[in-house]
Amino acid sequence: MEDPASFGGELGLVMGSPVHGQAALAVGVLPAARRRHHRRRREVFNDKLREWEDYYNYHRRHRDLDGQTPYERLKQGTTTET
């Protein structure tokens, strides 16, 4: 955990709180570089999630779909006998 003092004393009002970093983020006192770092991490996560969703829905064969991908099943139509 980083030392709150490294933020230049900007967290003085919330330093005693166990969630001082979250509170500081909520009120917008974190330095711009730190906000950019968190934004970049979210972007990387979202990019990886989109890659996984693409693989899962368009390339990965599913046993329960008789070896089809979810997209292939969707194109075929989902008619099942009851």
Task: Please outline what is shown here.
The chain has 82 residues and is mostly helical. It has helices spanning 20-27, 32-58, 70-76. The chain has 3 helices and no strands.
Walkthrough of the structure:
The protein is an all-alpha fold. It folds into two domains: 30 residues, no CATH class; 51 residues. The protein is 51% helix and 0% strand. It contains three helices and no strands. The radius of gyration is 23 Å and the shape is rod-shaped. The chain starts with 19 loop residues before the first helix and ends in a 6-residue tail after the last helix. About 13% of the residues have low confidence.
> Which secondary-structure class do the elements indicate?
mainly alpha
Our estimate of the beta-strand percent is under 5%
Straight-line distance between termini: 57 Å
The helical percent reads 40-55%
- Give the integer mean of the pLDDT values: 77
Give the helices and strands as they follow along the chain.
HHH
Indicate the radius of gyration in whole angstroms: 23 Å
Residue windows where pLDDT falls under 50 for at least 5 positions? 4-14
How many structural units, i.e. domains? 2
- Counted by DSSP, the helix tally is 3
User: What is the count of β-strands?
Assistant: 0
Overall shape: rod-shaped
Largest sheet: none
